[in-house]
Amino acid sequence: MKFALVCGAGGFIGGHLVKRLKQDGFWVRGVDLKFHEYSETHADDFVVGDLRDQGFCRAIVDRRFDEVYQLAADMGGAGYIFTGEHDADVMHNSATINLNVLDACHKRGVKKIFYSSSACIYPAYNQEDPHNPKCSEDSAYPAAPDSEYGWEKLFSERLYMAYRRNYGMQTHIARYHNIFGPEGTWTGGREKAPAAVCRKVAMASSGEEIEVWGDGQQTRSFLYIDECIEGTVRLLRSNFVGPVNIGSEEMVTINQLVDQVADIAGKRIGKKHVPGPQGVRGRNSDNRFISEKLGWRPSRSLRAGLEPTYQWIAAQAASITIATRRVA
């Protein structure tokens, strides 16, 4: 039997990854500050603890795991990352986790480790045109991320590459582009755009308006969770190091995202554009490199991913509304 460790297993991507690894026949240990909020863990062993604690990290890496996936981070959507209010925590917490996990794996002799970086590492100066952003892997330098979150991710990429060069570890790095799907954060301030839009549309009546930050012309691509997991596993089990984009090439404006969700919901939804954090004007995954190196690229349409995501979030919102009415 093979053994896998998933750091951040109580989160959205980590929870789905644990399910995939179990399907692949692994014994899985999951680690996080908390249990998964929306589903029971499929991990054989789930340890609640703080990966910022070096002693804890060394304790949970108690064997030579065949595969380690480091997804744990202090993160969230635009409302959390781009306000500037959480910069110190984001940088300190995430960097400490990566330093501890990587060093614990090195000392235990673990070789294969995946690190989840982010498209936020790409220079802001290449993402000013919403219709023509440049996010090819070789465009990362000269570095100028649009947030401290992006700077920390870039530092950690270099940390993993340094351990590969100096200690012979088989580190693999992916730059995720806006992953979404069921069982992800959908309220509370850390949710990303697809979840936020699904929530707002679900809680609005047909004919109402929902708030959209900025003019809604900023562009993004969004990748469904199943394809994120497939790309992640393929990368770690390959001879390719990365960094490489794991994202969709189907770029839409935020206004178009709202229209798609409204159509799925069968509602007429207007847009009220209000001030708010927006990040760069344009961002889209460039998948030429992953296609060349792995012989694979994501292919699922945005609509096909939004349909189950909206249904799941609408059900969550409805259950909260019903519970609130009962209390009242």
Automatic annotation (TrEMBL):
<dbReference type="InterPro" id="IPR036291">
    <property type="entry name" value="NAD(P)-bd_dom_sf"/>
</dbReference>
<keyword id="KW-0520">NAD</keyword>
<protein>
    <submittedName>
        <fullName>Nucleoside-diphosphate-sugar epimerase</fullName>
    </submittedName>
</protein>
<dbReference type="Pfam" id="PF01370">
    <property type="entry name" value="Epimerase"/>
</dbReference>
<dbReference type="InterPro" id="IPR001509">
    <property type="entry name" value="Epimerase_deHydtase"/>
</dbReference>
<feature type="domain" description="NAD-dependent epimerase/dehydratase">
    <location>
        <begin position="4"/>
        <end position="247"/>
    </location>
</feature>
